Amino acid sequence: MAKGFGMNCIKYLVFIFNFLFAMTGLFTIIIGAIIQSSYHHYENFIGESFWTAPIVLMVVGSLIFFISFLGCCGAMRESSCLILTFSVFLMIVFVTEVGIGVAGYIKHSELKDVLEKQFNRTMEDYTTSIEAQHAWSLVQGELQCCGINGPNDWKRIYINTTVPSTCCHLLPENVKQCTSVYASQEGCYPKLLNFLDTKSLLLGFVGIGIAIVQLIGVVFACALSRAFRENYETV
Questions:
Q1: Which of 22, 45, 125, 197 is the most exposed place for a label (fewest CB within 10 A)?
Q2: Where in the cell is it found (predicted)?
Q3: What is the pTM of this model?
């Protein structure tokens, strides 16, 4: 068995790191599940391709959790093979995350144009598509907005100043019909774009944090694997 204080120190550091890393994997799975369950109904305005991110988060989180377990077993059993396998898997996940990050950045640069196109399309389909009506009701009700850039956009659909009831969030008691006068003056396009930008920034910082932890883990694991191998060679 390995006796060196330095190697024991690294071994327990790797074990503690993997426990924390497993928690980050679990956290990543939870974040992906929350985004997928809470905001997937905006896919009518964003497009299905943009909602692959939460699924990717859950898959990566599951891989991180499994890899962390492998690293813990390798550290406790002082197995050079398991630790080396752990390092390789961790590096593969890191490279994959970098690729996903680059793809996400490219997709994010297209978000503004995609949103504008989808908002116009769903408004054009509003009178003939129940799905479009449901999508608009959701986004206007949840974000407390009206139309694409404001309530005047509904003039494409309504002849007078009438707008969908979900545009009016504080309608006076004596007023029975929602009109552009009482509707929210904020458009849904800028509000949803700002909302998604904020979430993307948060996910970006979380991703960078996890990537840094992964690199530290690879360094520790490689040092531990080398120490195990040198110890058994001397024995």
A1: 197
A2: Membrane
A3: 0.68
